[in-house]
Specification:
By secondary structure, the protein is mostly helical. It is 90% helix and 0% strand. It is built from 5 helices and no strands.
């Protein structure tokens, strides 16, 4: 027996036991750490899982909300655009309708007036035409001019730029014709005497002016048809 009553073999056994114990304790501590880590991971997963799901749901709700807003904005924009287009179509149709009425009235007054002016001009250039009838025709000339001016100014409020230019040219010629006849009639009523040659010359001027008026009327009609989409209507029915 050595010191302490233990021989070398006993001390070796004790040392082995101690080493084993330390190894077991170390293993237990490692195992405990693993268990703790696993528990923590499980705890984190248990807590984080709903949080992740909540985050995903929140993102989905936010995304859906943004999508809904975009769809609503697109719908509003589409609706606004459609409303604007519909309003524009209604406005265009209203303008076309008003133009049809105004153009028809103007052309009827203008063309009928051109015939009446030429007829009156023919009477005024007759040397034997009595003053009583000249005075009556003078009033008719004034009424004819007033009627044309009324319908012409209505056209200028509605016509396109091109049609307005055509109407202006026609009105200028028409007004000039009326004024010339009025002046000629007043001259006769005031006692101015004209020779047969002068009467014939005036008659030629009046006939030439009538042809010019009809030509200007035709030019206005071509432009007016564009304004009221008459050419499209003709194409669709042909």
């Amino acid at each position: 027996m050595s010191e302490g009553g233990l021989d070398s073999d006993d001390r070796m056994v004790i040392r082995v036991v101690e080493e084993f114990t330390e190894t077991v304790e170390e293993a237990n501590r490692e195992q405990a750490r693993i268990v703790i880590v696993t528990a923590i991971v499980a705890l984190v997963s248990a807590i984080a899982g709903p949080l992740v799901a909540l985050k995903i749901n929140s993102d989905q709700i936010g995304s859906q909300r943004d999508t809904s807003r975009e769809q609503a904005a697109t719908l509003r924009q589409t609706t606004d655009t459609q409303n604007q287009q519909e309003a524009a179509r209604n406005e265009d149709e209203f303008i076309r309708t008003e133009r049809r009425v105004a153009y028809t009235d103007f052309l009827a007054t203008y063309n009928n007036g051109a015939v009446d002016l030429t007829e009156i001009g023919g009477k005024l250039t007759a040397a034997t035409y009595p003053p009583r009838l000249i005075a009556k025709d003078l009033q008719s000339l004034i009424d004819i001019l007033k009627g044309e001016q009324r319908d012409y100014y209505t056209v200028t409020l509605l016509a396109s730029a091109d049609s307005r230019d055509k109407a202006r040219s026609a009105d200028r010629e028409y007004t000039g014709f009326c004024v010339a006849l009025i002046q000629f009639a007043r001259s006769r009523l005031q006692g101015t005497r004209f020779s047969a040659t002068e009467f014939r010359q005036q008659n030629k001027v009046f006939v030439a002016t009538y042809n010019r008026l009809i030509s200007l009327s035709a030019e206005f009609i071509d432009s007016a048809r564009v304004d009221v989409s008459a050419n499209k209507t003709d194409a669709s029915t042909s």
